[in-house]
Amino acid sequence: MLLVEQILNGLLSGAYYTLLALGLSIIFSLGGVVNLAHGAFYACGAYLTVLVAGPLGFAAAFAVAPAVVGLMGIAIETLFLRRLYPKDPTLTLLFTFGLAMVFEQALRLIFGATSIPFSIPDFLLGQLHVGGFLYSYYRLSILAVTIGAIGGLWLLFHKTSFGLIVRAGVADTEMVRALGISIKPILSLVFAIGVGLAAIAGVMSASLTGVHPAMGNEIVTAAFVICVLGGLGSFWGVVIAGVLVGVIKGVTALYIPPAAEGSIYALMVLVLIFRPRGMFGVKFARLE
Description:
Helix content: over 70%
Largest sheet: 2 strands, antiparallel
Distance between the termini: 48 Å
Strand content: under 5%
Number of domains: 1
Radius of gyration: 19 Å
Mean pLDDT: 88
CATH topology: ABC transporter involved in vitamin B12 uptake, BtuC
Number of helices: 11
């Protein structure tokens, strides 16, 4: 029973990781941007939850935080990143690194350096009882939201005209331009969706981990590892890698607690030895 509980706890961690990693992956796939500020958008989502949930309730915060962070992403992509696409990719890397530092220090100045506690909303209190097994409704709701977000994202990219343009742009950007389709607004929307997913993860984690300025730094490294494991450009590869990393971390924490964090990186090394592009990676001509 304890093993089952640890697997479910691992799936919970995997839920956060997967949402963050999917955001990173879709931003890189179309724009070629390695977004080092992704963790900062995750933290912004958590802080917006604290601000909005007080006067308007948790449900409103769940809707408002990703929307606001998505609009922030559109502004940043339009005003800054768009100028860097034709230039050396190192510049976007440096810009997003600097942006992450700016966001973290801004949150520290505005809200203070100490962690802000945030309670689980009343309507999600309680536990599911199945025999001798207990699991909180809030954690189950996080797993449900993650499954819903993954399903919605897949439908968006595979069953809509917008998704068709995105997938065509990933395969051949010049071809899309030759057809008279402007890729710029598509890039902005994809960036907004990517950082919006990070914000959703921040909303859901606020009650479990507390809210503090450096919270993004603590989780974004695992998200990058999942992108590498699953393979950049592979939707289901990232999802499978997120679940795998969460479960392995949870099980390792049960049997060898000191090695729980290290197990993620050991798995990455093992996969890359035999599959340098990741488990389901695709070939990007512009990178090779």
